[in-house]
Amino acid sequence: MARQDYLFTSESVSEGHPDKVCDLVSDSVLDAYLSADSTARVAVETLVTTQKIVLAGEVRGPQEVLGSLEGVAREAVRKIGYEQSGFHWQTADVEMLVHGQSADIAQGVDSGEDKDEGAGDQGIMFGYACRETEALMPAPVHYAHKILRDMAAARHDGSAAGLGPDSKSQVTVRYENGKPVGATSVVVSTQHSEDLSHSQVDALVRPFVTNALPAGWVSNDTEFFINPTGRFVIGGPEGDTGLTGRKIIVDTYGGAAPHGGGAFSGKDPTKVDRSAAYASRYLAKNVVAAGLADRCTIQLSYAIGVSKPLSLYVDTQGTGTVDERKLEAALADIMDLSPRGIREHLGLNRPIYARTAAYGHFGRAPEDDGGFSWEKVDLVDALQQSVG
Questions:
Q1: How confident is the model at residue 101 (pLDDT cuts 50, 70, 90)?
Q2: Helix or strand or coil: residue 94?
Q3: CA dist 292 to 167, 330, 332, 334, 335, Å?
Q4: Comparing C-alpha atoms, which of 119, 120, 21, 106 is closest to residue 61?
Q5: Which of 221, 220, 219, 224 is CA-nearest to residue 205?
Q6: DSSP SS3 for 388
Q7: Which residues make Cβ contacts (< 8 Å) with residue 158, sequence separation at least 6?
Q8: Are the beta carbons of 27 and 265 closer than 8 angstroms?
Q9: How confident is the model over 3-20, as pLDDT tens digits?
Q10: Can you state the angle between helices 380-387 and 272-289, rounded to 10 degrees?
């Protein structure tokens, strides 16, 4: 019997966190290639530190894009808002270590006369959905993201000009009878201008927390920890080194569901680390939206160069209205889960990835240009009909 009364905590980090700077640069590089060639192959990672940006990886695409990547990296940093002496979008040194894709990898992925397009690597991917929020996401990570997203919007529009780009949040949620009912503690650490005192930062940040959380979730017993070290002026890559792909739990479900271990950012959609994780979320969300379960975890697995998934596993954690094996058969029938099938079904060969780099890849609204297509619930009717 699953526990019904407990505390669970998830965190988020802002677009200005050093690791998220790297995710944005890597995904901006990917978008640049896909804008020029929808079939481009990209696996680019980024490292940032004081006044330094390093790009490294493998690509297959138009040669002219390679010459533009320094500008792409600088523009990504500019959009975040870094104009400090220790990390400035105009003056940071950009080092390029990007080369052509391995021929051995390419031959496994490319389609041919006797084979369909294969997966770009082996691996396991998980998707998850639940009824804790309207976005069908776990409550702790959903609200941790919302706090920072709202703070970033206010920073960009000037209404919270004293805040800096680098920030982190953490929300501990109390569950009763298996449902989230309140926040027992909230942690927010945010970079700020030198002229703001700790009490001023506290007063500036608290309204973002109370406005982000549902009514009644903040009580007199809720503990607040706003900049618990007392000062956070030096932030971003000036204060800490960042790398692409180090915030994979922030990117997904905040630890409320399994994670296969693969990062997303900087990878084109032939890499199932990314595309199959999106497909898993898409299927899990549609299962829950169809009323077939209150919670759903889906696992897919692949082998490099092989087009079909090796396994499809569904777990509704005792909340399902139909047998999981029946759901597995229905999902495999409704959607082609080969790498090509996923890309085509979700329209993934588009420049839609920079926007995913911060505040979670899941629980976002589908966009008209195909962004966050994996958040659609357009399989509901087909699923309901398939399982009877």
A1: confident
A2: strand
A3: 38, 12, 16, 15, 17
A4: 106
A5: 224
A6: coil
A7: none
A8: yes
A9: 899 999 999 999 999 999
A10: 70
